[in-house]
Structure formats: C-alpha cells, structure tokens
Amino acid sequence: MICVKKVKCRYLGEFAFGNNARVDRSTKNVLFDEKIGGTVHLALGASYPETGGVNQSALHWDMVCDLRQKGEVRVDDVLFLKEGKIVV
C-alpha cells in the first residue's frame, strides 16, 4: 500500500501494552492478540474518537509485537517493561 498524505496513515492511531497474562499464545485474531500480556500493540492510521483519538484515516493497521523474550521498553530513559513484565 502506498501511504499518501491525505490518508494520514503515517500517524499513530493507537498504542497500548497487553496485560492479560492468561493468554499465552497467538490466536491469529489481532483483537485478542493485542491484549496478550507482555506485548505492545500499535496501530497506524485512524484512532478511535471514543477514546479521545483525533486522527481520521482510511487506514487502521494493527500490529502486535511480542516482548516476552528479550524485549524491553524505556520511557524517558527509564526502564518500563522488560521481557514482557512491567518493572516500574
């Protein structure tokens, strides 16, 4: 897909950490997989106005990254999540 400016697909529409540790493997359904504990979920394009999002786009592309093995997230240089566990 080619991302053109008026589609606004270069904007981050969603960002969240999965917190459901009881889900331990992918279901191949992103609506479930984005909630797996130890993952981070990003969506490019449209955001949901019901949650305060303002980006309008023809695209909403969900992505899930599993951080449970060798992954870490830092926020303002402070370790927030390591190997799927929140450490703050």
What does this structure look like?
This protein has one helix at 30-33; strands spanning 12-17, 39-45, 60-66, 72-75, 78-82, 85-86. It is built from one helix and six strands. With 88 residues, the protein is mainly beta. The longest helix is centred in the middle third of the chain and has 4 residues, at 30-33. The chain has one domain. The strands form two sheets. Strands 1-2-3 form a three-stranded antiparallel sheet, with no helix packed on it. The chain has a three-stranded antiparallel sheet with strand order 4-5-6, with no helix packed on it. Helices cover 5% and strands 35% of the residues. The protein starts with 11 loop residues before the first strand and ends with a strand. A hairpin with a 2-residue loop joins strand 4 and strand 5.
Short synopsis of the structure:
This protein is mainly β and 88 residues long. It contains one helix and six strands; from the N terminus they run βαβββββ.
Order of helices and strands: EHEEEEE
Please mark out the parts with pLDDT under 50 across 5 or more consecutive residues, or reply none. Answer: none
**Fraction of residues in β-strands:** 35-45%
Number of strands: 6
Largest sheet: 3 strands, antiparallel
Mean pLDDT: 89
State the end-to-end CA separation. Answer: 38 Å
Question: What keyword list fits this structure?
Answer:
88 residues; 6 strands
